[in-house]
Amino acid sequence: MRRFVFRSPRLGFLACDPALAAPAAAFYRRNREAFAPFDPIQPEEFFTPEGQEERLTWDLEQAEAGRSFRFLLVQPRHPGKIIGLTGLNEIIGGALHSCFISYKLDHTLWGQGYGAEAIAALTEWGFRNLGLHRVEANIMPRNLPSRRAAAKADFEEEGLARRYLKINGVWEDHIHMVRRNDEEDL
Question: What is the model's pTM?
Answer without folding.
Answer: 0.93
